[in-house]
Amino acid sequence: MPLYDSGTSEVGDPRGIGAEGLVVAIQANYYRVRLDADDPCTREQILLCTRRARLKKTGQQVMVGDRVLVEAIDWADGRGAIAALHPRQTLLDRPPVANADQILLVFALADPAPDPQQMGRFLVKAEATGVPVSLCLNKQDLVSADTQRYWQDQLHQWGYGPTMLSVQGGAALDGLKAQLCDRTTVIAGPSGVGKSSLINRLIPQARLRTGAVSGKLGRGRHTTRHVELFELPEGGFLADTPGFNQPDLALSPLNLGQCFPEIRQRLTLDTCQFNDCLHRGDPGCAVGTDWPRYEFYLTLLEEAAEYEEDRLQQGDPDAALKVRMGEKGQRHHEPRLQTKKYRRPSRRRQKQDLDELCHSLDAHMDPLEPQIEGEAPLD
Ligand SMILES: Nc1nc2c(ncn2[C@@H]2O[C@H](COP(=O)(O)OP(=O)(O)OP(=O)(O)O)[C@@H](O)[C@H]2O)c(=O)[nH]1
Ligand SMILES: [Mg+2]
Ligand SMILES: [Zn+2]
Predict the structure, then answer these.
(1) Ligand 1 atom 11: the closest Cα is on which residue?
(2) Same-domain status, 130 and 189
(3) Residue 141 carries which DSSP code?
(4) Given the CA of residue 241, which atom of ligand 1 is nearest to it?
(5) Which domain holds residue 176?
(6) I need a labelling partner for 46 at 20 to 30 A (CA). Which of 54, 269, 336, 340 fits?
(7) Do both 223 and 263 map to the same domain?
(8) Digit-coded pLDDT (tens) for 59-108
(9) Whole-number Å distance between alpha carbons of 198 and 224
(10) What is the pLDDT averaged over residues 321-328?
C-alpha cells in the first residue's frame, strides 16, 4: 500500500529499518503503536512513539486506528517516531477512529430501558458515517422473553437483526465473537448500557472501568472517557467509546434517506423519478409513506433542513456539497442544488401557514420562512 510520505529511516533505529504498526492509543503527545505481528523482528511489540515534525508541518494528524510507519526505533526502551501514515479506509470523527470496519451499537433491554427515539437517532448517526452498522441488545437477564421478542420484532421492522445478549449472564457470546473476529469494531451507544462491561468480558485484560447506572436518572455515568483499541484474543480490535444520550445529527436532508435501511431497501427495488427526491410521498417517489418509521424520518428531515440552513447562513462552503458514502465509509463530495427549495414544512407548519394565509394573502409575512432573492418557491 502506498504511503503518503514514507521519508527515510534515520539514525536511532539501530537496524536502519522502520516497522509497520497500528496506533492503539493516544496519550498527550505520545502514540502507542502495536507493531505488526507478521514481522518476526517485532513480536507484537508496543512502542511509545512521538510524531515526526515533518508530519506536524504538513498537518497530518495521527489517529487511533491509523496504520503507520515507525522509524528511529529504540528497541531497548520501546520508543520510536511515527514517520508516515497509510491512507485511511474509513474515518470516524466522534469518536476519532481511523479504519473502523464496523460500528456495533449497544442498547440495554432494561436499566436503562430502550427509548425508540434515542435508538433511532443513534442508528441514523452511525449509518451516516457510511461504516457498516450492527446492533446488540444487552441485559437480556433483566427482561422477559416477551419483551425480548417485542424489541427483536421492532428492530426487524427497521431493517436490523439485533443480537440479544447478557454480558453478566453465563451464556457464551459465540455469535457476537464471530462477528467481531479480525475486524476493527467501534462500540457505541447510550451511557450505562454495558459497552465497557462487554469489552471486559471479551478481553479481560482491558480492565475498563464500568459504572453503576444512577438510580434517579436510570442512566450510566459516562464512565468511559478516551478512545483506545483493545485486541481480541481471536484477532481484531475493539474501541470503547464514552456513552452519551442524545446524539446530535448534523446531517443534510439529501443524505438522510441513505441512513434508513427501510429506504435503502426500497430503493434497491425501484428508483425515484427525481434523483434529489426527499421521499415524502411526492409523485414519482419509490419509497412511499407506508413504513413504520416514516413520521420519525420526517422529524429528522426537518431537523436536517434546519441544520443545513444554519450552515449555509454561516457560509460553510461544504454545505453546498452533497456527501456520498462509499461502501467502506469513504466520502465523495458532489455539488448539490440549493437545498431550501426541497424543504417541505411539517404538517403542523403547513396547517399554520394555511391559517395565516386565510387571514392575510401576503405569504411573505411568514416570519419562519424568510424569502431569499432568486430562490425557487417552496414546493
Ligand atoms: N443486569 C445486567 N447488568 C449489566 C449487564 N452488562 C452491564 N451491566 C451493568 O450496567 C452498568 C453499566 O455498565 P458499563 O459497562 O459501565 O456501561 P457503559 O455502556 O460502558 O457506560 P458509559 O461508559 O457510561 O457509556 C454496570 O453496573 C454493569 O455492571 C448485563 O448484561 N446485565
Ligand atoms: Mg463505558
Ligand atoms: Zn423518493
Answers:
(1) 212
(2) yes
(3) G
(4) 25
(5) 97-239
(6) 54
(7) no
(8) 899 999 999 999 999 988 999 999 999 999 999 987 889 999 999 999 99
(9) 13
(10) 53
